[in-house]
Specification:
By secondary structure, this protein is mainly α. A two-stranded antiparallel ribbon has the order 1-2. It is elongated, with a radius of gyration of 19 Å.
Length: 72
Amino acid sequence: MQENMNETKEEIDKVVEAVADAVMEAIADNYRSITEVQSIVECARAGIRVQIAYADPEELDFMDPYTVRACW
């Protein structure tokens, strides 16, 4: 970014932080951290039944946009 902008490093860092914050806010509802994903995988591998809520655009219910699938 520094090559494309004439601002100081501090100003660029502020812009980068604002962009990162905006992206994280936009995806926060559908975001799973790597720790959460690893935990889900560990449980499934250990034979522990895991239910995951997720959005399925083909099966969206009018009142509830999230579907809980059968356990893995």
